[in-house]
Design goal:
Blueprint (H helix, E strand, L loop, with lengths): L2 H16 L8 H9 L4 E2 L5 H5 L6 H12 L7 H8 L3 H4 L6 E2 L21 H5 L6 H14 L5 H8 L3 H7 L6
Parallel strand pairs: 1-2
Helix pairs in contact: 1-2
Length: 174
């Protein structure tokens, strides 16, 4: 690695170590970040991950995450461009850090998050540590008191212990 490249990488490396959600300011920073090993998996990216990329709005980031959570998998840049209704050339510059990994929805290793505001009792019982009694309580509480606003709201309304919420938060999405 030449001294010039090394000199440009060091400040970015320092920023990334201090702030792993650093929002890249330019295509050059993205390219340098890719050389430092930064990768964003398009099929598991959060809103915060998408917002790290220059030129993406909060609306676009939320839209991509919503599509991904609905089961859609992105296979290439063209899929991202189509989802955002922009030309591929507009997002081509993001390619250095984007990865398109496939996740089999039927695999026992793949966690499919469930929305407690719309899930059936049957869907809820597929979550580890959710028995029939808890699944019915979630649905009944939702029907009587309305949608859960957050994980904290769900925990409070159902008086769930923190240890159980520690498990559930990996399987629920609001």
């Amino acid at each position: 690695m030449g001294n010039g490249l090394k000199n440009r990488l060091q400040p970015l490396k320092t920023r990334l170590l201090k702030d792993p959600y650093y929002r890249f300011q330019s295509v050059e920073e993205l390219t340098l970040a890719a050389q430092l090993g930064v990768v964003i998996d398009a099929n598991q990216a959060t809103v915060d991950d998408w917002l790290r990329l220059p030129g993406l709005s909060i609306h676009q980031a939320r839209s991509l995450v919503s599509l991904q959570r609905s089961g859609l998998q992105f296979h290439c840049l063209e899929d991202i461009a189509a989802a955002l209704s922009v030309p591929v050339s507009h997002i081509q510059r993001l390619a250095p850090v984007l990865r398109f990994c496939y996740y089999d929805a039927d695999s026992v290793c793949t966690i499919q998050p469930v929305n407690p505001n719309s899930a059936s009792v049957e869907q809820l019982t597929r979550i580890p540590d959710v028995d029939l009694f808890l699944a019915r309580a979630i649905v009944q509480n939702r029907e009587q008191q309305g949608r859960f606003q957050s994980m904290a709201d769900l925990q409070q309304r159902l008086a769930l212990p923190a240890s159980l919420m520690g498990t559930l938060m990996h399987y629920l999405v609001l």
